[in-house]
Amino acid sequence: MGKKGQHCLLLLLCLSGLVRRSAAFVYWTAIVEIIYVNSSNDTVGKYCECGMYGRNSDLTTASGIVTLPMGDPHGCGSDPVYSRNASSPPWIALVKRGNCTFSEKINAAKWQGATGVVVYNVDSSGNSTTQMSHPEAPHILAVMIGNIQGMEVVGLVRNGTDVEMVIGPGNPHGPWVDPYWLYFLSIAFFVVTAASITYFVFLSASRLYHLNMHRRNERRLKSEAKKAIGRLQVRTLKRGDEETNSEAQLCAVCIESYKAGEVVTVLTCDHIFHKACIEPWLLERRTCPMCKCDILTALGVEEETKEDIGIETPPEATVITVTGGEAVYEVPLSHPANSDPERHQNPYDNRAFEGDSEALRG
Ligand SMILES: *[C@@H]1O[C@H](CO)[C@@H](O)[C@H](O)[C@H]1NC(C)=O
Ligand SMILES: *[C@@H]1O[C@H](CO)[C@@H](O)[C@H](O)[C@H]1NC(C)=O
Ligand SMILES: *[C@@H]1O[C@H](CO)[C@@H](O)[C@H](O)[C@H]1NC(C)=O
Ligand SMILES: *[C@@H]1O[C@H](CO)[C@@H](O)[C@H](O)[C@H]1NC(C)=O
Ligand SMILES: *[C@@H]1O[C@H](CO)[C@@H](O)[C@H](O)[C@H]1NC(C)=O
Ligand SMILES: *[C@@H]1O[C@H](CO)[C@@H](O)[C@H](O)[C@H]1NC(C)=O
Ligand SMILES: [Zn+2]
Ligand SMILES: [Zn+2]
């Protein structure tokens, strides 16, 4: 966790650094509305998203009567004169860009009681605006508008028209639009990545665990099958045995009839097969090929779980039909092994598994 934690911390630091830096490039447009009564006594309202909030401005809404400085339109100097003050109804100072810093203009208007300061751009700059930087004049609404719009309002005010101006935030712009959005995105990305990595690790571990369990189970079942095979009755067929006489009696594994001298294994369900044929089968499947009877259960070798084997041989019985013969091998499939308890004490004569059998007894 130590190394991972360090990486996370580093990534977070980088992200917060980027966000702080990118915040400088983010700017908000301002919606500027002017309302006045024109010479034919009609109320005119004009509305555009053409302003830009200063970097240190309050992102608030303000409204008031547009007021120009009485002398220099730049509104510079320590004490420019406005026709309104703090005890007047709310008013907005409209000053021209240039001749002093934005902070000076804004502070001068603020000290005289302005609700907000609107700076219009220099002559012949069209509708263009820039983001003002005014670190010495915070906590006031400061917006820049284009020269064309600014001059229009200045003309109206100079003609004696009372112009009401309403300013409000428009939309954020910038390389990453909004720092909060970026924060949200990076955190979401982080969470999603962490979740998928955790999920993947969990999945791999559980798959590995199950595979391991399955393998161990298989190995255990195989060794149990070996023990069970050792306990099965083995006979050598003699001339005259009924199995050798009947053409219909076939070994279901190799589909061959029995001949005298062949060694056969008798399963707990009384079905017989060639010893060489049935033993590999039983090692793999542990059931009679004909009636599906489970030799482990029948012999009582199996002690516990058979349920937790991941992949179980499908329960559907494959009915073996032997060509030529009638329904010789038709065995009730649903019927469990008709295991005779006496069969369990079969005389031991399977030499191949003597060792296992000794181990089981000891
Ligand atoms: C404009 O309206 C005012 C009343 O609202 C009225 O007194 C004035 O005469 C009108 N002026 C013109 C030019 O219509
Ligand atoms: C005053 O405004 C009305 C409505 O916007 C307009 O129709 C009219 O021409 C304007 N009058 C002048 C003198 O601009
Ligand atoms: C710039 O401001 C100073 C006062 O601070 C004033 O004397 C000067 O005339 C102004 N210049 C222009 C071009 O307005
Ligand atoms: C504000 O202006 C009014 C006149 O418009 C004046 O009577 C008043 O003294 C001024 N108040 C301040 C604090 O300057
Ligand atoms: C400035 O904007 C107005 C509309 O807001 C537009 O009619 C005018 O053509 C623009 N002027 C320039 C120079 O872009
Ligand atoms: C200002 O008033 C004069 C005449 O009084 C007029 O010619 C001019 O167009 C007006 N300007 C504005 C911007 O209304
Ligand atoms: Zn066989
Ligand atoms: Zn059987």
TrEMBL record:
GO molecular function ontology, one term from the record: zinc ion binding
Signal peptide: 1-24
Pfam families reported in the protein's UniProt record: PA, zf-RING_2
Bilayer-spanning residue ranges: 180-205
InterPro entries xref list: PA_dom_sf, PA_domain, Znf_RING, Znf_RING/FYVE/PHD, ZNRF3_Arkadia_E3_ligases
Main subcellular location of this protein, as a coarse class: membrane
Protein name: RING-type domain-containing protein
Cellular compartments per GO CC: membrane
Superkingdom, taxonomy of origin: Eukaryota
Ranges in a coiled coil: none
Localisation per UniProt entry: Membrane
Region feature (Disordered): 332-362
Domain RING-type: 251-292
Compositional bias of kind Basic and acidic residues: 340-362
Keywords from the UniProt entry: Membrane, Metal-binding, Signal, Transmembrane, Transmembrane helix, Zinc, Zinc-finger
SUPFAM superfamilies, alphabetized: PA domain, RING/U-box
Cytoplasm among keywords: no
Alphabetical list of PANTHER family matching this protein: RING ZINC FINGER
